[in-house]
Design goal:
The structure is a single chain. The chain has a three-stranded mixed sheet, sandwiched between helices. Strands 4-5-6 form a three-stranded mixed sheet, sandwiched between helices. Strand 10 and strand 11 form a beta hairpin. With about 260 residues, the protein is an alpha/beta fold. The chain is globular and about 45 Å long. It is built from eight helices and twelve strands. The structure holds arginine. The site of arginine has 16 residues, from loops.
Length: about 260
């Protein structure tokens, strides 16, 4: 994670961001701290990278790259506004003994790549190039499945696809083109989100044990998760939503 010391809306690179809708800094710090404290309380080990001034979106560590074992694939930002972040994530991982790789094509880190049952599901269409998936598959020696994103509000795959361990996966049907939607629907344990759930960034939740850390809940979602033995813990992520981000965006998984 990355404490949002310099988090702000300094540019607009997704439809949620509006420069006139400024971040309340102290509220953002509090919201982030509540999430951090909850991870610790639930026994999650959290590592921190320091935010660099002038890189307001660096707090969204999910976009930093992809971790697999002792390998870190540095993301390649499509937007120049965020490209400055790349070397800091690369240095951080290098400094901790990871093997790091750079990509030729654009790729949004874990924002556009999530493991489910040992296959890396990867989004493309907004932040990532389809070609980057082959690069990542080759570097990591793993199988990838490419899914095309079509709704600009769900520009990052991790806003529309949320693995629940190996048990199931929450997904938002309308964010995928028809062939990709079909692939996702047919996954074991695929659970469709409603529009309101998706727009409330349920796709951007994080499963901790059998608790879903989420920014929203309703009875439909509770009913869908109950048979899986999954409960919901709620967080107010309103300041990060102004930037088009949520819980998963603030979290880079390092345990695969
Ligand atoms: N403002 C950031 C951007 O547009 C938000 C990133 C959210 N990250 C994520 N993994 N979905 O790049």
């Amino acid at each position: 994670m990355c404490r949002p010391d310099y988090f702000d809306i300094e540019y607009e690179i997704n439809p949620w961001m509006h420069k006139e809708n400024q971040v309340n800094h102290s509220r953002a710090m509090k919201q982030w701290q509540v999430l951090y404290d909850a991870y610790k309380e639930y026994g999650v080990e959290v590592e921190l990278i320091e935010q660099i001034k002038g890189l307001p979106d660096m707090t969204f560590t999910a976009n930093g790259g992809i971790v697999s074992g002792n390998t870190f694939v540095v993301n390649k930002h499509r937007f120049k506004e965020r490209a400055g972040e790349e070397r800091y994530f690369e240095e951080w991982f290098k400094g901790r003994g990871f093997k790091t790789y750079r990509l030729k094509y654009f790729q949004g880190g874990e924002g556009d790549a999530l493991f489910f049952r040992d296959i890396l599901y990867m989004g493309y269409g907004f932040r990532s190039d389809r070609e980057s998936h082959d690069e990542v598959a080759q570097i990591l020696g793993i199988k990838t499945i490419s899914l095309r994103l079509i709704d600009p509000y769900f520009y990052d795959f991790d806003t529309a696809f949320c693995p629940l361990g190996d048990k199931a996966v929450l997904y938002y049907p309308l964010s995928f083109d028809p062939p990709s939607r079909k692939k996702v629907m047919e996954l074991p344990g695929a659970i469709a989100m409603t529009k309101i759930q998706a727009e409330s960034f349920i796709g951007n939740s994080v499963l901790v044990g059998d608790i879903l850390f989420a920014g929203y809940k309703d009875s439909d979602l509770e009913e869908k998760l109950k048979p899986l033995g999954i409960g919901i813990k709620m967080f107010d992520m309103s300041e990060f939503k102004k930037s088009g981000g949520g819980i998963k965006c603030l979290t880079l998984y390092m345990d695969h």
